[in-house]
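User: Run a structure prediction on this.
Assistant: Running it now.
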Amino acid sequence: MRILIITLFTLLNINSKTIIHESISASFNVIKRGHLLLLEIDFDEENYIKFGESISLQVTKEDFGNYLNKTTSWEIDGEKLIPQILDIKSGEHHTKVICFLSEYRENIKSVSIKNEFLMNVKSHFNIVKLDINNTFKDYRLHKERREIKVDYD
């Protein structure tokens, strides 16, 4: 019985110390909220602090904005957009950043996105979700596919 209890505690201890994410990814959601076009980003805070060129042990607006603008680009109908960070919320292991992209436009014709966010993390990929023009589309970006262009014709 004693061996069984020791084995059980050992297994529980190993499992509690080896928390592994099922997937190493970040999501980028472009959505309409009222008259605004917002970008919501959800990512692993630990990976960002280790690999995102942060000078802080926290996700700050200034550091994150610099890194986001260095690793991504956003264009709608040929106009380059620069995300403006509105809010940062950190949870257990993930951080959510909400950015203003632009005023909402009716009948968007094209969206071009380049995304190399945390691509230096092994096996990392980014999911880009576009919820515009009453249409939902999502794309997986990774080391071999870093750019997309979506036409809404």
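DSSP finds three helices and ten strands in the chain.
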